[in-house]
Amino acid sequence: MKTTDTNSNLSSISPDNSEIRLSTGVQGLDDILSGGLPRGHLYMVEGDPGTGKTTLALQFLLEGSRVKEKGIYVTLSESKLELEQVARSHGWDISNISIYEMVPDDEDLSAEAQYTVFHPSEVELADTITSILKQIETVDPQRVVFDSLSEFRMLARDPLKYRRQILALKRYFAGRNCTVLLLDDRTAEGSTNDLQLQSIAHGVIKMQSLERDFGIKRRRLEVHKLRGSHFREGYHDYTIRTGGLAVYPRLIASEHTPDVEREQVLSGLTELDDLLRGGLDSGTSSLLIGPAGCGKSTISMQYAYTSAMRGEKSVFFTFDESKRTLIDRAKNLGIDPTKLIENKSLEIHQIDPAELSPGEFVSRIRRMVDEENLRIVVIDSMNGFLNAMPHEQFLALQLHELLAYLAQQRVTTILTLAQHGFIGAMNTTVDVSYLADTVIYFRYFENAGAIRQAISVLKKRSGSHERTIRELILEKNSIRVGPPLKDFEGLLSGTPTYVGEIGKVSDPGE
Predict the structure, then answer these.
(1) What is the pTM of this model?
(2) What is the spatial distance between Cα 500 and Cα 507, in angstroms, rounded to a whole number?
(3) pLDDT higher than 90, residue 27
(4) Contact, 70 vs 177, CB < 8 A?
(5) d(CA 388, CA 319)
(6) Domain tally for the chain?
(7) Eight-state DSSP code of residue 128
(8) Any idea what the CATH number is for the domain that residue 439 is in?
(9) Residue 5 placed within a domain
(10) Structural contact between residues 378 and 303, judged by C-beta atoms closer than 8 angstroms
(11) Are 334 and 295 in contact (CB under 8 A)?
């Protein structure tokens, strides 16, 4: 993938190239941070319980262990056993990470206990920190995690004392060149928006979990600040899976160098290519719009199939119908994609929007563009994509950014959009036609007691196109586009009038 040196998408602070950055262990987060966290500073990771702070912290320490850096996890909220259970659930071995447990242990309060036990109501914050620092001196780590700051707040009782102790911690670790993560679950009183602590920290990462009416939670994070360093601003989706966090950086098309070379993308149907005056152009987006069942998915599959037959990589994302149904219907029309799917030149993915975030969907496409030289993307349909995520107010903006990125990578994008109704006036609940370079329109019309289908091109930004309306004929083992329907008027209304020569009424399908 080619990238430009533009900084329009990043924070405007000039980078310090001499500053060593530490990988967080999460590839997507490192991308957002322009390589990772600057070494030797104190960072705050803020989020409600269940947002993945502990998982991120363990990945940070495991990455340090991988590069032979010592790490210590100081826990005041979770036990060592709980941390080990989290690690096992991800398939991690944390035996090389020191864990200093400072939570009450009802089973072992003897002097011989392996871990020191403190209780917030009995021990002052200063004594607790002194004990922690003794352990730090013993381990001599390069990476440190404190979990969580809510316990520190309760121990301090006084906000001024709490702030002074955190400042003292910051100075102490700066002298040891340690990189520290302070986890804050925001459960303590007054911690909802702790601007004082955010001002102390060198960087702040906020993690959020958003409820949806249906389906899984949507999780997203934001780098709130990173002093003296570039980072990618805005919200970025992420998921928690077996193996850790997967972060999907927000796509910004302006980062990518446009490839201005364009080629014609043929459908394999001569008459359809004539309608478009040579076919679609690579690097453009096309919207196929019309009522349900009028052939939008079929024509989309025809393009993907023909491209794959040329040896180009194509992917078909279906939101509305099952993968099996789509393949069977294609076979019945004479475009059997089975062998193409087997050799991976054509991929068909059935998408469940209730289980997918927009960021993850975009990330899938980016990976295929970068790693597999993707040439055609089909999204069928926009109704399923947009309506299944009703609370994603900026989904259209994300789609615009995706289409711009694909255009710069010379990837041809085909979107389908179903209209309400079948004959007569129709409308759509969403309008994305302004995003498309080409709009291909499908309609049903009645003729001689039969329902037929018409296809026409309403716009093509990249060149000229026919102004005619042609018939689309879908038969067993055959997809055909007929000659222009010159003997009819009112085809787009659904009830055309014959205006041809009297006595020479012909079957439009001939």
Answers:
(1) 0.78
(2) 12
(3) yes
(4) no
(5) 9
(6) 2
(7) H
(8) 3.40.50.300
(9) no
(10) yes
(11) no
Vertex 33 angle, CA 32 and 39, to 5°: 160
Is residue 53 located within the same domain as residue 144? yes
Closest CA to 2 of 214, 261, 231: 261
Question: Helix, strand, or coil here: 120?
Answer: coil
Report how far Cα 26 is from the mean position of its chain's Cα atoms.
15
Q: How far apart are CA 173 and CA 182, in angstroms?
A: 12
- The terminus-to-terminus CA distance of the chain in angstroms comes to 48
pLDDT mean across residues, the chain: 83
The token duo for 49 is 């319980």
* Section 366-370 average pLDDT: 90
Same domain assignment for residues 140 and 262: no
What is the Cα–Cα distance from 316 to 313, expressed in whole angstroms? 10
In a domain, 127, yes or no: yes
The verdict on residue 366 lying in a domain is yes
Give the helix/strand (H/E) hosting 80: helix 80-89
Instruction: Quote the domain boundaries for residue 398.
Output: 255-498
* Tens digits of residue pLDDT in 45-80: 999 988 999 999 999 999 999 999 999 999 988 888
Q: Among candidates 13, 23, 32, 45, which has minimal Cα distance to 203? A: 45
Using only C-alpha atoms, the chain has a radius of gyration, in whole angstroms, of 29
Split at pLDDT 50, 70, 90, the class of 179 is very high
* Distance, CA of 96 to CA of 82 (rounded, Å): 17
Beta-strand pair 37-38/42-47: unpaired
Same domain, 246 and 262: no
